Amino acid sequence: xxxxxxxxxxxxxxxxxxxxxxxxxxxxxxxxxxxxxxxxxxxxxxxxxxxxxxxxxxxxxxxxxxxxxxxxxxxxxxxxxxxxxxxxxxxxxxxxxxxxxxxxxxxxxxxxxxxxxxxxxxxxxxxxxxxxxxxxxxxxxxxxxxxxxxxxxxxxxxxxxxxxxxxxxxxxxxxxxxxxxxxxxxxxxxxxxxxxxxxxxxxxxxxxxxxxxxxxxxxxxxxxxxxxxxxxxxxxxxxxxxxxxxxxxxxxxxxxxxxxxxxxxxxxxxxxxxxxxxxxxxxxxxxxxxxxxxxxxxxxxxxxxxxxxxxxxxxxxxxxxxxxxxxxxxxxxxxxxxxxxxxxxxxxxxxxxxxxxxxxxxxxxxxxxxxxxxxxxxxxxxxxxxxxxxxxxxxxxxxxxxxxxxxxxxxxxxx
Length: 415
Known about the structure:
Helix content is 75%, strand content 1%. By secondary structure, the chain is mostly helical. A two-stranded antiparallel ribbon has the order 1-2.
């Protein structure tokens, strides 16, 4: 019987720590090779995965149910909750500052090279006046060039626009294009699964390198970072979303939480909102009492584009990495992080560790080294479980609020 991925990663973490302590010098090139190869494989899948995921998701939803009132309410909920989640993470990571210890970034303590001084100078000049430039850069002059150069923000914007355009085509070209992008997405999901299957090897190499370079001093900032993400996730799940359910939907959030407990535990253990989707639909439909019309539309769309926990994590991770490298992100740069996290969460696939793929988008948007991902891999499996549960919780909250807005009598009787 094959071990689950999270157990494989846990074992890789332990072995990586042991290898880093027992063979700190001679095997360092091997550790670097394993870690760097894994990071390159992650980067390889980003562009085609985003294109297939966003275009097929939006075009498929449009084909199934149109872009009317139901879509408007659903999309408004997802954008609002994702943005609120990002802002919660943004506030906490700026207050706690997990990437700074004794007034200095922790990257060099963890065995990573310091960031280019030119990067600090480039980002320090960004301010509110750069917002216009940020919006302009979201519109690519050449989408193909943006994809080739790894410019993710304009690529995501173009994919959203393209997906919406596909929904307005006549049936024949719509079906052909939708079939192509669905096939592309399925193929990229397969490749992504292969890459994620290599995560234990890559994490072993990265963890061994960090421990060999810094010893046990590496764990203090990682624990602070993990604690910051968990605190932000708990606040969003226990405060922000229940308040919205109560105030916007006028529904009992506590009763809804009891209804959704099986789905949330499944999401936590599988680390996949897509794998949890059948159970999520069952609990919202048969437990909360929403109609098939709402659940069959809102929840599959949510599993595709609504990733509150992932968006929050990406924001905190990007700012933690910036702090670790000693790079101070001004208002303009942090706005880029917020916008990119929001758009990247739309393109995040509902599979285990998909956030690792998406985080490089944000690092690219603000010019931070991709190697900074090595700082967060050690604690990512546990955080992935938590953020997946938050993703599913937000999807279900959106479903009952939308159902209530459509006049349905949801959560009126105990399940």
